[in-house]
Amino acid sequence: MAPTQREIDDAATFEQHDTIEVEGTTLIEGLPGHGLVASIAVDQITEQLGLDLYGTLYDETFPQVVTFQEGMARDPVRVYAGTDPAILTLQSDLALPWQAFRPLSTATFSALGEIEEAFFLAGAPAQFEEERGAVTAVATTPDMKAKLQAKDIDLAADPGVIGGVTGALAQACHHESIPAAVLIVKAHPYLPDPGAAQHVIETALEPLVDFDIDTTELEQQAEEIQERMQQIAEQYEQMVEGQGQYKESRMPGMYQ
């Protein structure tokens, strides 16, 4: 199929690459954010379900770059689609600047047809190790709130603000009365966190969406990252000890 373009006022341009029927679908957002939880989780979902490239989005506010994979150029912001189940995923290879939030959110809900429900993923820094992977949710409609409660997904108890591109997309759903939920996932405060991505798939997305995702690969990645973190911690400890020995040899009689 030759790509077709759809241009809407105040919206990014959508270039359609496939004729897959996308009416009445579930949208899952996987844009880069804290801990890369959304990106990691949605990459896994897109790959596991064998979703096809449905279209690309671009705008002058997006980073003016081309990304590539396996030697082939591609647009950074892409939409993938499948029919069994009816899923759309929104992904980006790069973090988007704030100027891009409105064009992207407008295009998402104008160019992609009727979206039945949407799920957005937002990472939040975990203060303690045992918090990592914990999920709380914010709903845009009473029906979505009831669905979250029926699936035993905790609602966010305290007032707060959801910012960034996820906030812009959730705001669009709120104003258009599209049933949507922001799934707020506690993740490692500094590193990409595939373990948190695994948890949000297993404890929130699988109960909410009609699919079954194998997260074994994410579990393995989490273990690898934990091992690297341990190595870094040991190297840092050795470095500090080495500096301490050096200081003691140069400055005898100094105590801490």
Can you list the strand order of the major beta sheet?
1-2-4-7-8-3-9-11-10
Strand content: 25-35%
| Cα radius of gyration in angstroms | 21 Å
Q: How far apart, in Å, are the first and last alpha carbons?
A: 71 Å
The outline comes out as globular
Proportion in helices: 25-40%
Secondary structure: number of strands: 11
Give the helices and strands as they follow along the chain.
Answer: EEEHEEEEEHEEHHEHH
Number of helices: 6
The overall pLDDT average reads: 86
Q: Main sheet? A: 9 strands, mixed
Which residue ranges are poorly predicted, with pLDDT under 50 across at least 5 consecutive positions? 245-256
Query: Which class of secondary structure composition applies to the elements?
Result: alpha/beta
